[in-house]
Amino acid sequence: MRRKASEIPSRELNIGGISVTLEYRKVKNINLYIKPPDGRVLVTAPPLADVSSIRKFLESKEAWIRKNQEKVRKAFSDVSRGEDAGKGKGAGRRISPEEQEILLARVLFYARRWEPVLKVHAKKWILREMKTRWGSCTVDTGRIRINTRLALYPEECLEYVVVHELCHLLEPGHGPGFWAYVEACLPDWRERRRILREEGGK
């Protein structure tokens, strides 16, 4: 009997001396994350993905992992888990230029991943401090704005916001058609949105 992804235990892999946590999830592709604030490496994979394929993927990304681990650790060296935990994560703390640079790189990474899938292209990505929104999309100009506070949130939250705003290039409103696009990209979007809402976003 085939086990569900949630029933397959996570495991640790060693890639060139880098510790990588492997988790099997209900996803279509192998996904790689560098988790703030300490640069922990997480890879998620479909339940049927074999470890040898995952290792090859990680080995091809080793240089990228090392580079971005260093960036994340440096940017978050002054932020403890306790400081930013809970509701209103990062509220009142200005995001530094270096953190914004890393955030923009992360945004563009997900944009490059999902724009070909959705067959859309954002003409410009803008980082902006916003009090009530995680992102906004101006369909006429193709400009998408991302809240700088997302620099303090997990990769899955940022990816959700990027996909959400890209889907607005196809459906301006939040009707069934819009959510169908989001669901097709991120089947677990409700969980990602829940994290954002619980921690003070809208």
UniProtKB/TrEMBL annotation:
Superkingdom in the source lineage: Bacteria
Pfam family of the protein (one): YgjP-like
Regions crossing the membrane: none
Coiled-coil ranges per UniProt: none
Annotated YgjP-like metallopeptidase domain residues: 31-75, 110-198
Gene3D superfamilies linked: Metalloproteases ('zincins'), catalytic domain
Classification via InterPro entries: UTP_pyrophosphatase-like (IPR053136), YgjP-like_metallopeptidase (IPR002725)
PANTHER family noted in UniProt: UNCHARACTERIZED PROTEIN YGJP, UTP PYROPHOSPHATASE
Name of the molecule in the record: M48 family metallopeptidase
Organism whose genome encodes this protein: Merdimonas faecis
